[in-house]
Design a protein that fits this description.
Helix content is 30%, strand content 26%. It has a domain of 155 residues: Dihydrodipicolinate Reductase, domain 2 (2-Layer Sandwich). The protein is globular and about 80 Å long. The longest helix is centred in the C-terminal third of the chain and has 19 residues. The strands form 2 sheets. A 9-stranded mixed sheet has the order 14-13-12-11-7-10-9-8-15. It has 373 residues and is of the alpha/beta class. It has 9 helices and 15 strands. Bound molecules: nicotinamide-adenine-dinucleotide (NAD).
Length: 373
């Protein structure tokens, strides 16, 4: 029989209450909510009167009897809170991006492994119906070979003060792209500008070059009058347009392609062949991605399985963000993303974290579906 998992959420600002709302709905024991801001806690207490409210995270970890913790605080707190949570023996979910550095991610992965705990990262879009449909279409071969992916995630704000727009918004796009392509990039470029807060870029353009001549571009902005969440996946047979702002009909599959003539003798005989067929809108089982994500965390704890978005995925994404930041500092210079011998996954970094402690290396099917090379 499945155990009812006792769970707590830390960080009840903008995003945390969405986790709380879903956990309250799911079959688990939502036992505690923690926030340093008493006004936020008072508001949540008015909505969930049976749930214990605490301002001290240490008290939530040690004094409430939790099996699992979900962390939705600003990124700068992710590592220290997740480390404390894992060391206290709690299965741990961390919102994206997993931590401020890949060294921190490596350490968290090692602790979770050593203690046999589930470590999951909030790559929410992997649980959304449109992304699941895109993966299904790509896997079926319907789209052909993917040539490139173009993503645009733009909005007015919400301005952050500890991370730039690439660290804030690109995790969504990068996680989708890695999941669709099942590969890691070889080269990362990023350009951007800080217009409002000095030193914190509010617009950025990332390019990712993948093996086999594929690439992806990601445009992110907090300085856009319209809310845009678009992605185009261009395949050799068909193309997918994904617009997440639409309430229905989020995906359109276009039967369009361009082909070389099979053979020609003179330039006059050379004509590209433009195929323009039908466009169709696949049916999507639209459930709230966050609900599925929370359920998946509970299932992984109960079944002892690896999450679709585990610590390793979180770390690889942070490594790409680190490469983007390095490129940004060098005005868009290409940063090589080291490839392993199997041609895809970079080898573990050998980095040292604060105080000289060494980092260690480190229907949702997981492991076999991941980019492995
Ligand atoms: N998955 C998604 O789609 C998605 C969307 C938005 C935000 N997020 C992520 O959620 C996280 C939180 O973002 P947000 O926009 O809600 O931030 P926020 O600033 O609105 O909320 C953070 C909350 O954490 C609290 N907090 C800070 N330090 C604390 C401490 N030491 N102990 C207890 N509480 C503390 C703050 O008081 C605040 O209420 C970030 O990692 C962000 O990237 C994810």
């Amino acid at each position: 029989m499945k155990k009812t998992i006792s769970i707590g959420v830390v960080g009840c600002g903008y995003w945390g209450p969405n986790l709380v709302r879903n956990l309250d709905y799911l079959n688990c024991n939502l036992k505690a909510m923690c926030d340093a801001n008493e006004a936020r806690l008072a508001h949540l207490k008015s909505l969930y009167s049976n749930v214990e409210c605490v301002t001290d995270f240490k008290h939530m970890l040690n004094g409430v009897g939790l099996d699992a913790v979900m962390i939705a605080t600003p990124v700068k707190h992710h590592y220290s809170m997740a480390k404390a949570s894992l060391l206290a023996g709690k299965h741990t979910f961390i919102e994206k991006p997993m931590a401020s550095s890949s060294c921190e991610c490596e350490e968290l992965i090692a602790i979770a492994k050593r203690k046999g705990l589930v470590l999951m990262v909030g790559h929410t879009f992997l649980y959304s119906a449109p992304v699941r449909k895109i993966v299904e279409l790509v896997k079926s071969g319907d789209i052909g070979e993917i040539r490139y992916i173009n993503a645009r995630r733009l909005n007015l704000g919400l301005f952050q003060n500890d991370i730039n727009v690439a660290w804030d918004l690109a995790p969504h796009d990068i996680s989708i792209i890695l999941h669709v392509l099942k590969a890691y990039p070889m080269i990362v470029n990023c350009q951007g500008n800080a217009h409002v807060t000095p030193g914190i870029e509010d617009v950025s353009n990332i390019s990712l070059a993948f093996p086999n001549n594929r690439f992806a571009t990601i445009q992110n902005s907090w300085m856009e009058p319209r809310k845009i969440r678009e992605m185009t996946i261009v395949g050799s047979r068909r193309m997918i347009a994904y617009d997440d702002v639409q309430t229905a009909e989020k995906i359109r599959v276009y039967d369009v392609r361009v082909e070389h003539p099979p053979h020609y003798d003179t330039f006059a005989e050379f004509h590209y062949s433009y195929h323009s067929g039908d466009c169709y809108i696949p049916h999507l089982d639209l459930q709230e991605p966050l609900k599925l994500e929370c359920q998946h965390f509970l299932d992984c704890i109960n079944n002892g399985t690896m999450p679709l978005s585990d610590g390793h995925d979180g770390m690889m994404l942070v490594r790409i963000l680190e490469a983007a930041s390095a490129s940004l500092k060098r005005h868009g210079a290409p940063i090589n993303f080291p490839q392993s011998r199997n041609g895809h996954e970079p080898p573990a970094t050998r980095c040292r974290v604060n105080k000289g402690s060494a980092c260690c290396s480190g229907d949702f099917q997981s492991s076999t579906e991941k980019p492995t090379g």
